Amino acid sequence: MKPSKSLASLSLDLDNKWSYMKTHGDKGWTAFPSYLDTLVPRVLDFLRARDLRITFFVVGQDAALPQNRDALAALAAGGTHEIGNHSFHHEPWLHLYSRSEIESEFARAEEAIEAATNVRPRGFRGPGFSFSPTVLDVLVRRGYEYDASTFPTFLGPLARAYYFASTRLTPDERAQRKQLFGRFSEGFRPLKPYRWQTRAGTLVELPVTTMPLVKLPIHASYLLYLSSFHKHTARIALTYFDAALRLCAATGVEPSLLLHPLDFLGREDATETKELSFFPAMNMERERKLEIVSEALKMMSRRFEVVPMIEHARRTAALRALPIVPAETLPSHDEQAAAIVG
How far are the Cα atoms of 57, 86, 220, 230 from residue 66, in angstroms, in the given order? Predict the structure, then answer.
């Protein structure tokens, strides 16, 4: 009898076109331009062809708009995929929100997402990997089972600098986005699941997996970025990903892989993506992107049992006692707000 595979999880942050424009400081985002009608059927067909079940982290503002209801309802149809909460306004400075603002943000997102999908989210990922002790405490009080907002890598500041180089943000807007993609210290966070201890109770944390030991990113967008330099670098990127999976298996890390909408949109989708050319790999052909993502997921499925994040969280927590990390060790809202003012 073959030994059972270790667990892994797969998720997609359903950031819409307007949310990228908003974070980038571009005009026109307030009209909420969307590519969901193009993206959602493509992603669902892709997953169905590979028999994959994943978690979609949905933005509440999209769920609140009637024109997006059909696309979002399709994600939840049949109960195949999990629906998670990705905040209402998709602002990567969520860690600067007060408790009352966080409560309102979650309540609005939950109401809109449930109305659009008939599903009440039980998992959360902060936009731009933003979170705080108050965010975690509110999640526990609102009945969430897990958070997935940590991104343990040392490259956050470099990614932020690369991103800022393509923007025309004001000094105030730059300060607001000061922790986009996380601080250098995020690289010291654990890769394996653990529990946050908050005043209200505990909450499972499922980190976005980076390469064990060196903490370099391995999510699909990073693989596509590595593949964009030359026609032969896709093989190098996939070899790199395979090495990361081998390290995960060797160190007992159950990988949680992150996807983004732009992993499924290429230069042929110019109408939907012309304002997003500042993103890496947006000049690649769609089919080439899909081939690379497909090969990476095939590698992952060969080594691991790939499930939605809520199943990963429940099964992991049921199998063993998870380490406890006090949420109060994180900088508080007041401390982070003071750092911005300073």
Answer: 18, 18, 30, 42
Taking CA atoms, 301 is separated from 51, 72, 90, 224, 321, in Å, by 10, 26, 31, 19, 26
> What is the torsional sign of CA 157, 159, 165, 167?
negative
Average pLDDT per consecutive 10 residues, the chain (342 residues; last block may be shorter): 80 97 92 97 98 98 97 96 98 94 98 98 96 96 98 80 69 69 84 97 98 96 93 92 98 98 94 87 95 98 98 95 89 42 32
- Considering all CA atoms of the chain, what is the largest pairwise distance in Å, rounded to the nearest integer? 61
Q: Which residues are 197's β-sheet partners? A: 202, 326
Confirm if 45 and 73 have CB atoms less than 8 A apart. Answer: no
- Domain 6-211+304-341 listed as CATH 3.20.20.370: yes
241 within 8 A of 212, measured Cβ to Cβ: no
Cα 181 to Cα 141: distance, rounded to the nearest angstrom? 26
pLDDT in tens, 104-126: 999 999 999 999 999 999 999 99
Query: First CA to last CA across the chain, in angstroms?
Result: 61
Q: Are 309 and 82 in contact (CB under 8 A)?
A: yes
CA gap 155, 21 in Å, rounded: 22
Contact call for residues 117 and 150 (beta carbons, < 8 A): no
Give which of 116, 38, 16 is closest to 75, Cα–Cα.
Answer: 116
The domain limits of the chain are 6-211+304-341
Sign of the torsion angle spanned by Cα atoms 222, 12, 54, 137: positive
**How many CA atoms are closer than 13 Å to the CA of 1, on its beta-carbon side?**
2
Please tell me the pTM assigned to this model: 0.91
